[in-house]
Structures are given as C-alpha cells and as structure tokens.
Amino acid sequence: METREAVIIVENLCKAFGDNVVLDHFNLTLYKGENLVVLGKSGSGKSVLIKCIIGLLRPDSGRIEVLGENVPELSYSQLDQLRARVGFLFQSNALYDSMTVRENLEFPLRRHWLKVEQKEVDALVHEVLESVGLEHTADMMPAELSGGMRKRIALARTLILKPAIILYDEPTTGLDPITGMEIIELIKQVQQRYQTSALVISHDMKLAQTASERIAMLIEGKCYATGTYRELAASTDPNLRAFFD
Amino acid sequence: MNLFPKNRAFLAEIGNLARFTARFFREAFRPRYEISELIRQCFIIGYKSLSLVGLTAFIMGLVLTMQLRPSMVHYGVEAKIPAMVCIAIIREIGPVITALIFAGKIGSSIGAELGSMRVTEQIDAMEVSGTNPFKYLVVTRTLAATLMLPVLVVLADAISLYGSYLGVNIYSVLSLRLFIAQVIENLAYYDAIPAFVKTFFFGFAVGIVGCFKGYYSTKGTEGVGRSANSAVVMASVVIFILDLLAVQVTELIWDY
Ligand SMILES: Nc1ncnc2c1ncn2[C@@H]1O[C@H](COP(=O)(O)OP(=O)(O)OP(=O)(O)O)[C@@H](O)[C@H]1O
Ligand SMILES: [Mg+2]
After folding, report:
1. Which residue has its alpha carbon closest to ligand 1 atom 26?
2. Structural domain of residue A164, as residue ranges?
3. Maximal C-alpha separation, chain B
4. Portion 122-161 of B in contact with A at CB < 8 A
5. Are B64 and B88 in contact (CB under 8 A)?
6. Residue A245: which pLDDT band, with cuts at 50, 70 and 90?
7. Are B129 and A112 within 8 A, CB to CB?
8. Which residue's CA is minimally distant from atom 30 of ligand 1?
9. A155: domain CATH number?
10. Which residue from B94, B101, B211, B234 puts its CA 20 to 30 A from A89's CA?
11. Does ligand 1 have an atom closer than 6 angstroms to the CB of A47?
12. Using one digit for the tens of pLDDT, what is the confidence trace for B90-104?
C-alpha cells in the first residue's frame, strides 16, 4: 500500500482523434517527490497523455486530478493558476525564437501576473540559468544555441516558477547519448534541489534505467504494467521484452 | 471526375474561417487586453511594409499617368489628367494595390510566424505560461493589420499622386500647387470616404486570414511554408471579393 501523497491521479482517461483511439481507459498515479517514467513507442500517445494532464487537450472521458484539482472541469483562470505550479518541458523545447534567452525566462513570470520586482526577476533568471549551467547565454537568441543548450534553457524556463510537478516530454529525444546523459543528470539534480515530483515521458531505456524510481508502460492506450526498472526488466511478457531487449 | 470532395474541403475551410473570425470578436472585447503587444505589432507591421508600399505606390502613380496620356491627348482632354488619375488612385488603385502588397508582405509573414510557432509548440508553451495565445498572437496582429493598412493607404495615395505629378511634368509644365488644386477640385467625399472605409476591411482580411492559416498550421516545416503561401492567396482573393462588395454597398448608400 502506498502511503505517500498523490499529486497526479489519472483515472480511466480516454482520448480519440476521430477513429484513432489513442488513450483507452488509462490509469496512472504520481506520488509526491517521485520520478515516474512513462515508456511507450513513438506514436503511442505519450504526448497526448501529458497534454491532457496540463489541460492543452480535452479528454473524451475520465478523471485527471492534479494537485487536488480536476483538470477538465477547471475554468480558464483556475487552469492558469494550476499551470503556474506545474512545469512542462516540451518535446521541441518551444523556446520563443523572437525573444532572447532572458526574455524567454521572464515570460512566464510576467505573464502569470506575479508582481515581482525587476531585481527579483534578475535574481531568479540568474538562479535558474546557474542551475542548468548556462549563465553566459542570457543575452543570446535561441537560434544561436545548440540542441542540448536549448533543452537546458527550456528546462530553466520551466523551473523559474518553482513548480511542484514537472512534466517532461521526451527530454532526451534528438540529443546525442552524451548530451542525453547530461540532461538525465540535470533532471535528477533538479528533483533534489527543488524537491519536485517528475513525470517523464520517453522511449529512451537509458533514461528509464537511470532516472526512474518507477516505470509505467503505455501500450495500446492502456497502462500495461508498472514497476521498477528491475522488476519490469525481469518480466517474461513479450510486450515488455520488446522494450528491454 | 469527382469534384465533390474538393468542394467540400473548400466549404469546410470557409466555415472554419468564419468560426475563427467569430472567435476573434469574442476574444477581442473581453479582458485581458494586450495593449503593449498591440502597439508593438502596429509598429512592426507598419514599419515593415512602409518602403515597399511607398515604392510601388510611386511607380503606379507615375506609370498610370504616362499610360493614360496618349488617349487623353487624343480626346483633347490633356488638362484632365490629374483629375482622372486622382480618381483612379484614390477610389481603386491605391487601396487595392496597397492591400495586395500588404497581403504579400504581412499576410505571409504572419502565416509563417504563427505557423512555425504552432509546429514548434510555442503556442502551447504560451498557453501553459498564463497567456491566452489567441489574444496575445491573433487578436493583436489582426487589430494591428486593421489599423495600419488605412494609414499605409493614405500614405500610398499621397506618394502615388506625387508620382503622377512627376509624370505630368515629363511632358509639360504644371506646378505642384496647381496639380493639388486640380486634385482637390475633382475629389468629392464620396470618392474618398468609401475608399478609406474599405481599407479597414482589407486590413482586417489580411490579418485574420494570415493568423487563421498560421494558427492551424499542420505538422512539419512543410506546413509552415504552405501556411504562408495560402495566407497570401486567400487574403488576395478575399480582398477582391470585399472590393466587389464595397462598390455595391457604396452605390446603394451614396445614391448619386
Ligand atoms: N492534435 C491531434 N489531432 C489528431 N491526431 C493527433 C493529434 N495529436 C496527436 N494525434 C495522434 O495521436 C497519436 C499519438 O500521438 P503522440 O504525439 O501522443 O505520440 P507520442 O507517443 O508522443 O510519439 P512521439 O514519441 O513520436 O512523440 C498519433 O497517432 C497522432 O497521430
Ligand atoms: Mg511525443
């Protein structure tokens, strides 16, 4: 029995696009302070899952409770308040390419109506840039950065609101293995430094092995199995073996 | 050959554009208002198209004058060239040519900008950062286009008339004062006002179509190019249709 507090509860989540059933009665629980990795093949609906959790997509049915709030029923302003406490790292980073790194980092602070003074803003920008190790890039444009650096800046932008939960959409996809490892290390550091809970979506087994406390397998729209890496790796189920071999 | 599926897609597109426009009006009048972003967009949109609009307007005025001249001389009404040209420019050529140039320059850039923001998830990122992307991106750009095109058209008309003045002076001597006096004498309110009013609609069309195409851009970099391209094509067609409507409505209202 789990005694820890749950921060995200997904129950019987269904989502289809026309005839394409992507999520079919999907269940998932994320506990406070844990790193949970959701593994699934490309196109299995991982991005759809976390976009439903953050309220970017409307589920067809099911309950999504985040920090005690039922996401599909929230009004626009309630959703904004919730989103200030939930960070989202996009698969494609989604840095605003018309703004400098500094402006990118300041954007969520200013837009969430957080009335902070310029001095505090500068201090926060400096702090998050330092925690991703890129202090010198503050006045560069996103286009001038490498893929790994962009991923770090995107993470810094997510961190600046000090979220309680961070949702990572394939943080290592498209990066070389060494940079990927660096990002994995960073995710672990962030979790320790800011005491966040993390839901990581991926198909990267290395990431699942090194950064997860628990793994959930998303297969055919369902949560097929959950467990630690060791437990799942020891399974003889052919659907699971396909991932681990 | 079965044309039906294509027609259906076309009608669906019109329906979606109408819905998008309705959403624009719903969101535009509800707070929060993105005033500083609107001002920034006005500046960018106006400034970006200024030199291009100026150049084409000047050439249109000059060329129109030179092209009209032989016939006017033939009928012995050479002195009426300024009157003729100014009516043509103010009523039709100024607004329509400027709007088409504007569609090419601004419609495509809005389509490409929003399209690339869509495919790289920047629009979603705004939404999770406490910003309504429809207000922040679509409402501001559409309003900016609606407000700036009329300004550009007034400028273009003036530059065009100056081009025409130079065109007249290639063959004969006419002082600028006399040219202006002739223009003013021949212009009536019903020439200038309907022409000015329709430019707001043209500007709105360019803005909303550009945003529509970009906002619903499909996946991939190829989709971005297609958004930019079809924004220009669709906006240009809409401008002509509006022009056709405008002339009918003007006839009804201004019963001369
Ligand atoms: N907005 C949408 N409209 C229609 N279909 C969509 C939409 N978003 C996703 N899909 C479909 O949902 C399915 C799952 O997509 P999703 O992006 O969640 O995959 P993924 O698991 O994140 O894959 P990847 O590893 O490639 O990112 C796909 O078949 C896709 O075509
Ligand atoms: Mg994905």
Report:
1. A42
2. 6-244
3. 69
4. 122, 124-132
5. yes
6. confident
7. yes
8. A43
9. 3.40.50.300
10. B211
11. yes
12. 999 999 999 999 999
- All residues of chain B having their beta carbon less than 8 Å from the beta carbon of residue A52 are none
> Which position has the token pair 């909303």?
B208
- How far are the Cα atoms of A38, A76, A128 from residue A59, in angstroms, in the given order? 18, 16, 33
Report pLDDT for B256: 60
Mutate to test the pocket of ligand 1, among A22, A56, A175 (most ligand atoms within 8 A of CB): A22
The model scores a pTM over 0.80: yes
Residue that the structure tokens 């919730």 belong to: A82
Minimal CA separation from A75 to chain B, in Å? 13
User: Residue A1 domain-assigned?
Assistant: no
CA–CA distance, B133 with B67 (Å, rounded to integer)? 48
Total residues belonging to chain A: 245
DSSP characters over B174-195: --HHHHHHHHHHH--HHHHHHH
Number of domains in chain A: 1
Cβ contacts of B116 on chain A, cutoff 8 Å: 97
Please state, rounded to an integer, the average pLDDT across all residues of chain A: 90
If you average pLDDT over residues B27-46, what whole number do you get? 93
Q: Nearest C-alpha to atom 7 of ligand 1 is from which residue?
A: A17
